[in-house]
C-alpha cells in the first residue's frame, strides 16, 4: 500500500515539476530527486552491511534455527 502511494505521489510530483517549471528545470529537479534516493539507498545498504559484519551469525545458531523450524 505504501508503494502504491509512493508511486502516485511521485507521478504527481513529476507532472507538477514538468508543467510548472518547464522540461529543462523539471528534468533537472527530477534527476536530483532520483539521484538523491539512489545515493540514500546505497548509504543504507552500506550501513546494513557494516552492521551484519559486526555481528556475524554463528554456525550453531543457524543449526538451532533450522531444528526449531523443522
Q: Would you give an account of this structure?
A:
The radius of gyration is 21 Å and the shape is elongated. It has helices at 2-54, 59-69. The protein starts with a helix and ends with a helix. The chain is built from 2 helices and no strands. The mean pLDDT is 81. The protein has 70 residues and is mostly helical.
Secondary-structure map:
Elements (H helix, E strand, L loop, with lengths): L1 H53 L4 H11 L1
N-to-C CA distance: 33 Å
Fraction in helix = over 70%
Average pLDDT confidence is: 81
* Class of secondary structure makeup: mainly alpha
Rg, Cα atoms, Å: 21 Å
Shape category: elongated
Number of strands: 0
Count of helix runs: 2
Oligomer: single chain
Instruction: Report on the biggest sheet.
Output: none
What's the order of the H and E elements? Answer: HH
Beta-strand residue percentage: under 5%
Low-confidence stretches: none
Short description:
Helix content is 91%, strand content 0%. With 70 residues, the chain is mainly α. The radius of gyration is 21 Å and the shape is elongated.
Give keywords.
single chain, 70 residues, mainly alpha, 91% helix
